[in-house]
Amino acid sequence: MIPKPGKTPLRFLRSFSRLFGVKVYGKLELVNPTGSHKDRESWEVLRDVKAKGFKAVGCASTGNAAISLAAYAFMVGIECHIYVSESINPDKLALIEAFHPKIHIVKGGYEEAIERDAIETPSPWVFTMLTQESAMPRS
Length: 139
Description:
Layout: E1 10-12, H1 14-20, E2 25-27, H2 38-52, E3 56-60, H3 64-76, E4 79-85, H4 90-97, E5 102-106, H5 110-120, E6 126-131, E7 134-137
Parallel strand pairs: 3-4, 3-6, 4-5
Antiparallel strand pairs: 1-2, 6-7
């Protein structure tokens, strides 16, 4: 199965605690497999994709969600389609490429990547994450 993210440590944030007059803690999400809080969502999406028998997964992203989703898809052998803007940070693109997804470079920004993802992603066997907060199957 997919390596589950989580069990990230809490750290007491002294300066914020003083500032707000209450104890404030921060989660260190950087200890997740790709170093991102997006790993939690990607893990859930890939678990659902596998359970429902989808053949591929895809998302439009500015980088972080794509890195995480591509990594988790690679770990479980699910085809991954990533739609990114032509202006994506080259370092983020290199990280995405490390997990061998099908990368679709889009003219324009994030909104154009979402539109192209919705039009081009083959259905009904592809689960598309339109945003990390609202993953939905293509119909």
